[in-house]
Amino acid sequence: IVWTDHGFLLSEHDLWAKIQMPWYRELSNTPFFVWDPRCGQAGQRRQSLVQPSIDLGPTLLDLFEMEPTADMLGQSLREVCASDTPVREAAIFGNHGGQVNVTDGRYVYMRAPTQPDNQPLYNYTLMPTHMRDPFSVDEFANVELAEPFGFSKGCRLLRTQGHTRSKQHEYGTLLFDLEQDPRQENPLSDPTLEQRMQGLLRGVMEECEAPSEQYERLGI
Question: Are 112 and 99 contacting, i.e. CB atoms less than 8 angstroms apart?
């Protein structure tokens, strides 16, 4: 298995770097190579939607003839590797506090927050640290205990006010046709298609147990 982290913009879309902007293909559609000795397929491409971050666990368990755990949402990629058999209708992606994105493989829908302050937005955790430092005293002063999620083994979680460093609201909601516009330069205006993609987004958010305030933040 060869897999990569996110991409990096080098002036595409008149933007630089990562994280702050919408998750265009240059950032989110990353290389992924798999050799599965069970099917022996090599030198071929597959078009089915896969999400390595959640699919690799079930795939490796399947390789050793073990079942995925009850809380895993990923799928074994055995049949994708063998015959390009789809394992999902839609895939969700993005980063915390940003646009929430969904794709069906052809279209990409990037739903932006409705309010300039990007609220309501919370962090849920049992490990109160950021990437480089622990939570501050001020953050702990306003912490609440949230009710358990289905995957948190009955444990309540610390809920703190979430913040975002970027102005996600300014990018707005975007809809792209990857077949006709692979560089994502011409956003579509198609209410019927947007309604269908919004339905896919809600469905995957429900599967992921997205907290209720996320629907409010996104206006859906």
Answer: yes
